Amino acid sequence: xxxxxxxxxxxxxxxxxxxxxxxxxxxxxxxxxxxxxxxxxxxxxxxxxxxxxxxxxxxxxxxxxxxxxxxxxxxxxxxxxxxxxxxxxxxxxxxxxxxxxxxxxxxxxxxxxxxx
Length: 116
Description:
This protein is mainly alpha-helical. The chain folds into two domains: about 1-35; about 50-115. The chain has helices at about 1-20, 25-35, 35-50, 55-80, 85-110. α1 packs antiparallel against α2 (about 25-35), α3 (about 35-50) runs antiparallel to α4 and α4 packs across α5 (about 85-110). The longest helix is centred in the middle third of the chain and has 30 residues, at about 55-80.
C-alpha cells in the first residue's frame, strides 16, 4: 500500500509542478506538459512492478498511434474558449469531441489492419 501511495505522490508531483510553473511561464509549462512524462512514469512503474518489457512495448506502440487524435483536444479547447464558451463547458466539449475522434480513428486503424 505504501508503494501505491508513493507512486501516486510522485506522479501527482509532476502535475503540480507543471501547474505551478505555468503561473510563471506558459511556454515552459507547455514544454514540460508536452513531454511524455506520464508515459515515462507509466513505463517506469510497469517495469519496476513486473519487468514486463513486452507490455511496455505494447503500451508504447499504442501511445504512438493515439498521439495523433489527441492533438485535436489541444486545437479544440482554445478555439472553444476563444469563441466565448466558458471553461468547464469548453473542456467538456473538447473531451467529448476528442473521444469521438479517438473512436473514429480507431475504426480507421482497424480497417487498415493496425491493432492497438
